[in-house]
Fold these 2 entries.
Entry 1:
Amino acid sequence: DSGVTQTPKHLITATGQRVTLRCSPRSGDLSVYWYQQSLDQGLQFLIQYYNGEERAKGNILERFSAQQFPDLHSELNLSSLELGDSALYFCASSVDLVAGGSSYEQYFGPGTRLTVT
Amino acid sequence: GNSVTQMEGPVTLSEEAFLTINCTYTATGYPSLFWYVQYPGEGLQLLLKATKADDKGSNKGFEATYRKETTSFHLEKGSVQVSDSAVYFCALIGAGGTSYGKLTFGQGTILTVHP
C-alpha cells in the first residue's frame, strides 16, 4: 500500500459526459501528479500541483482540468468525454518539488479505470 | 525533449533464469533514472532508482547501473521467480528547469516467468 488513495476504482460513462476523479496523497506529501495510461499512448504525464498551485503541464487536453485543495487532495475533471479518453488514470504524490538535480520518489495510487462507451 | 526507450517485449523466461531489460534514454544534463513495476491490476511501485552517473540502484535482487556514456539504465536480475511476472517501466525525471518532478516513461516491458 503506497498510502495514495484514488476513487473511484472504476468508472463507466457515456460519450459527452463529465467525470471527476479524486486523489488523496500520502500524509505529508505536498506534490500531486496525474498520469494517463492507455494502450496506444502508454504512460503520459498530465499535470502537477504543488501545495495548491499548478506547477507543470504535460499532454493534458483542454477538456481536462485539475485542482488541488487546501487539504492537499486533488481532483481531475474530464469533460466532453470521447471514446479515446478510456484509460487508466493514476495519481502520484511526492514530498516536495524536484530541486537542484535531486529527485523525490513518487508514490502511485492504484488508479481509476475510466471506460467511455 | 526527454524520452525513454525500452526493449520490446513480451519477455518470457523460466524460473531461475537471468533477466535483462534494456533501457536507454535521451535527456539533457543528468536526469534521475527509475525502474517501476506494475503487477496485474495494481498501480506502479518504485523498484529502484539512481540519481547520478555510475550509481547502482538495487532492490529485491534487481539491479540497474546509471551509465552516462551509453545513456543506459538496464535492469538485471540473476534469478527470476514466478512472482516477478509483471510489467516493468523505465523512467526518468529531467534535471531541473521546467522538468520539475514529471516522470517520462518508456513503453513498458511485459515479463512472464514460468515455473
Entry 2:
Amino acid sequence: AQRVTQPEKLLSVFKGAPVELKCNYSYSGSPELFWYVQYSRQRLQLLLRHISRESIKGFTADLNKGETSFHLKKPFAQEEDSAMYYCALSREYGNKLVFGAGTILRVKS
Amino acid sequence: GAGVSQSPRYKVAKRGQDVALRCDPISGHVSLFWYQQALGQGPEFLTYFQNEAQLDKSGLPSDRFFAERPEGSVSTLKIQRTQQEDSAVYLCASSSLLISRGSSYEQYFGPGTRLTVT
C-alpha cells in the first residue's frame, strides 16, 4: 500500500536557522514525490517535485530510495516560510496524490 | 486567468440531508480530482475524471458519495444522507494533460468546501 509519513506535526525554528521537514514513504514501485505548501488563508500549491530537482524559495528535497525518504530542507529559514507543508506521492506525475498528514512550520523572529 | 473555484465555501448540513458541492476547474483542464481532508489530516483521494469519464472512484468512502462531470468541465460531488463523519474540507484539483515544461500535469487546487454535519 502507498503511504506517506510525516513524523512531526509541528516544527518551530528561529529565523535564520536551518530547516528540515521529514518525509518517509512506502511504495512498491518508483513513485513521484512532491512537497505541497499551504500558507495561511491560501490554497494548497505545489512547492517542488523530485523529478525537477529544482530549488524553490530556497527549499530543496532529495529523493533517497534506500531510506525511502524525501526530506525538505532550507539552510536559513525566513518568517514567510511559516505554513503547512505536505509531502505527497503519486504513481506517476498527473495521477492521484497520496498525502502525509502535514507538518506546520513556524519560523519565529 | 482564474484558478479552480469551488462553491459553496462553507456548508452546514443536518445529519441525513443531501448536499451537492461544485467545482469549476481551470478552463481547458482535462483532469479533475476530488479529495477529502479531515481535520488534522492530509487530503485523501476520492475520485478522478478525465473529461467526462470517471476513471477512478476507488476513494469514495461509501455509496452515499457520488460524483459527476457530465460535460467534461464543471463537476459536482454529491453526498446523500450526510453523517457526522462526512464533516471535512472537500478539495477539488484540476490539471492539463499537455506535455510541456513547468506546469504539465501539475494539480491546481481550489479553496475547498468546508462541510459541517450537525
